[in-house]
Amino acid sequence: MKHYERVQCLKRMVQVHEEATEQDEEPIMLSFRKLLGSVFGNQVSGKDEGRSSRPDSYNLFDRKPDFENDYGSSVVVDQSVYSPLRQSGVGLYLVNLTAGSMMAPHLNPTATEYGIVLRGSGRIQIVFPNGTLAMNARVNEGDVFWIPRYFPFCQIASHSGPFEFFGFTTSARRNRPQFLVGSNSVLQSMKGPALAAAFGVSEERLERIVNAQCESTILPSGSSEEDKVKNERIPAEVIWSFGFLSNK
Fold this sequence. Notes:
The protein is of the alpha+beta class.
């Protein structure tokens, strides 16, 4: 598919109504006014004769990272951390990547993600659920990007400097991203003869490939890992079919 056709297909797929993950989950009406009012305390309650009800503000930069290693950090705020998010139905996140590092390829099974680049530049890579490339775009400070639910993706920092982005998800509940690469990859729990047969490789080779990346969540520059795995490559078409992304 041509780039334009991929973008149009991506837009059409996102317009499809997402079913609730639980039967008792109420529909969520999202708006920037509701989001900002909930996060920054601008909502006014009409039940107290004009008196305003303002929740305390929350500074993402004051929160200890939920994950941190030598290659970056991430902070996540959901309704369990900041209760006003329960009313707006969104979760917040802040990610910092060092130069050349990558947020490991993963997908969000519960929500769509929106992001704003705060500092630096990088690349956003997205694939369709069927494994074909949806988008591979460079982003800079001030750019906005979004990732549909179930679409595998990764964010890669440029080698010129750190890459920082902030955003929100369309669910205030705890986010459980499913990583496709790294020591916390879903492949770790799927290893066995069935998966090896699906990839068309031996169990021994699959074991070496799955364990080749010892880091989790935020990965080092692809160039630093290239020599470690250059002899342990699964055919490209097999990798794409599972939703992996290339760091090129």
